[in-house]
Design a protein that fits this description.
This protein is of the alpha/beta class and 426 residues long. The protein is built from 15 helices and 15 strands.
Length: 426
């Protein structure tokens, strides 16, 4: 069962982007985004639809129900990147971008949206880097024990399996009834277990953990919790403080509508003492005193350093993708204005329609019926190429895997998008 789940969760999009082009025909999102006939047109008719007429803020054509793969950026976020590039071109007379200001704005908005304090947040290159920093920081990469589950990101499962070759012990909890049950996680905990690592919303089928219940159980047993929140942040209300989670992270190119190359890591203030610095770089700099620069007072040693406080002083390393930060600063303000509760409520009728109609077409539900996450998935036996071709012809973008498809509506989608998908599959 565990081996079947791992095989079925292989992300063909990631493989195709790494050069394995044989997988492209099975992955509609890649074809839509990177083929010679992209779903986004150079000029697009503005459509007044979606939550607060938000569809008019995007330029793609067709029905894009694929936010779990890569969420489109709005025209406003694209303009922010263009302004950043103007600054990088050193164009005279162009409005210059305040890169540090964008970073500050984005961090403040992230903290506001997900209830975290500034000293509990830090920039990281990606979700995977953050999880590695947790494992290294806790000293688990060559010893200790971790509990995870089959709905955790496949790249993370690969990571734990590789670390196991160096001495890490880990257990994978299997799914029952399309869910990961808290009691099953509890039963997998051993006396030497240090960490539970999970994906808050599964990228496979959309199952959402009760994060507070997991954290309450784990903490009662003296175990810490890491959550990958990439498929929830930006589409679902998350209260990091109230959840009790020790560590969390997400990249920003999905529902946060940033871009590749930047992510944000969270570590609860009380949990930061457990993390050791496994990487060191200038973003950790606090007080620095030198005795070798012009007009410095003489002294020895020639340089005295002290790391800054908070999470940034533990995991901050080097240069950021500041163009992506400029898009993120705009997008987080946009999401704040829409309201995450409103976004969640907007998609529910669309998800319910899919849950009701897709089984009638012969597709097997992979998502719990009471799920409220932004992802719903359905299994089928073979036929991926035929399904892909139908949806491509209809101008519908979802993710098609070998034996299942994943649908992820956003706030700009409407019932007409769902009907277009269903019509293509009938």
């Amino acid at each position: 069962m565990k081996h079947d789940m791992a095989e079925n969760s292989v992300d063909l999009q990631r493989r195709s982007l790494m050069g394995k082009m044989a997988a492209v025909p099975l992955t509609l999102g890649v074809a839509s985004a990177f083929s010679s006939a992209p779903i986004r047109a150079a000029t697009s008719k503005r459509i007044n639809a979606g939550l607060n007429n938000s569809r008019a803020d995007f330029e793609f054509e067709g029905s894009y129900l694929n936010g779990a793969y890569m969420h489109p950026v709005s025209t406003g976020a694209a303009d922010a990147i263009k302004q950043y590039l103007d600054a990088r071109l050193m164009n005279p007379g162009q409005r210059q971008v305040n890169m540090s200001g964008d970073r500050d704005t984005a961090m403040k908005l992230f903290g506001k949206l997900f209830n975290a304090d500034a000293d509990e947040l830090a920039w990281v290159p990606s979700t995977t880097v953050a999880e590695n920093l947790v494992i290294d920081g806790l000293g688990l990469h060559q010893q200790g024990s971790v509990v995870t589950d089959v709905y955790h990101f496949s790249g993370s499962l690969f990571m734990y399996n590789e670390f196991a070759k160096q001495g890490l012990k880990y257990a994978i909890v299997e799914a029952r009834d399309q869910r990961i049950h808290v009691e099953d996680i509890a039963n997998a905990i051993k006396p030497d277990t240090r960490l539970i690592a999970l994906t808050l919303v599964s990228n496979v089928g959309g199952f959402e953990h009760d994060l507070k219940a997991v954290c309450d159980m784990a903490h009662a047993k003296g175990v810490m919790v890491y959550a990958d929140i990439i498929q929830a942040a930006g589409n679902t209300p998350i209260d990091l403080h109230a959840s009790g989670v020790d560590f969390a992270a997400c990249s920003t190119y999905k529902w946060l509508m940033g871009d590749f190359g930047i992510g944000i890591m969270y570590a609860r203030r009380d949990s930061q003492a457990a993390l050791k610095r496994s990487q060191i770089g200038f973003r950790q700099e606090g007080k620095v005193t030198t005795h070798y620069m012009p007009f410095d007072p003489p002294g020895y040693p020639l340089i005295e350093t002290q790391a800054t406080t908070g999470l940034a002083g533990i995991v901050g390393v080097g240069t950021l993708g500041n163009g992506a930060v400029s898009a993120l600063a705009y997008s987080l303000a946009y999401l704040d204005q829409l309201g995450l509760d409103n976004i969640k409520a907007w998609r529910q009728p669309l998800l319910q329609q899919l849950q009701q109609e897709m089984p009638k077409l012969g597709y097997l539900p992979m998502t719990p019926q009471d799920s409220t996450s932004a992802i719903v998935s359905f299994a089928f036996k073979d036929g991926a190429k035929a399904i892909y071709d139908k949806l491509q012809k209809a101008g519908v973008s979802v993710t098609v895997y070998r034996h299942y498809l994943r649908i992820a509506p956003s706030f700009y989608n409407t019932a007409a998008d769902v009907e277009r998908l269903l019509g293509a599959l009938r």
